[in-house]
Amino acid sequence: MASTSDIKNGLCINHSNDVYKVVEFLHVKPGKGPAFVRTKLKSLKSGKVIDNTFPAGHKIDVVRVERRKFQFLYKDDSGFNFMDNETYDQVNIQESIIDNSEFLKEGDTIEVLFHAEKNEPLTVDLPQYVSLEVTYTEPGEKGNTANNATKPATLETGATIKVPLFVNEGDTVKVETATGNYMERVKN
């Protein structure tokens, strides 16, 4: 058991029959009354973010977690299949715990956060940026560049994003996985 003085960003705790990750915290010592810790907690099962306040010295149940590197193999009806880079074991992970799964390409290396005692996957962290090929986009009109004009483009994974008019089919683009935003065209 730990106490509120051990709270830090990224810490995983058991709270209200769920596993939460501390997103933000603030130790508050008001002029009058006891100290407390104000936190933002993100549920690793539902993804919902809640605000919670713990009194100073309150005992918290810390969850031991492990980060492991996996390689994405393929997607089928049962979910996404990954291979552990160290043991070569395969694991199937449901799409519900993978944020922005439309940017996963076969062969990509990702990190999976596991509950150490139960050995169950909690979250899947994609790389911050991925480079993907544009498989379909309308040709851009010459001279139509007044205000950062964009057009939809379909990527090799099937995801659709907005790209500038100068991007053509066959180009490789860098995409931020958290937001799905176009970052730049990658030179081959």
Which key features would you list for this structure?
3 domains, SH3 type barrels, 188 residues, mainly beta, OB fold (Dihydrolipoamide Acetyltransferase, E2P), five-stranded antiparallel sheet, 0% helix
Write a structural description.
With 188 residues, the chain is mostly beta strands. It folds into three domains: 2-62, SH3 type barrels (Roll); 65-125, OB fold (Dihydrolipoamide Acetyltransferase, E2P) (Beta Barrel), CATH 2.40.50.140; 130-186, OB fold (Dihydrolipoamide Acetyltransferase, E2P). It has no helices and 16 strands. The chain has strands at residues 2-3, 12-15, 18-28, 36-43, 49-55, 59-62, 65-76, 79-84, 90-93, 109-115, 120-125, 129-137, 150-155, 160-164, 172-176, 181-186. The protein has a six-stranded antiparallel β-sheet with strand order 1-6-2-3-4-5, with no helix packed on it. Strands 9-8-7-10-11 form a five-stranded antiparallel β-sheet, with no helix packed on it. Strands 14-13-12-15-16 form a five-stranded antiparallel β-sheet, with no helix packed on it.
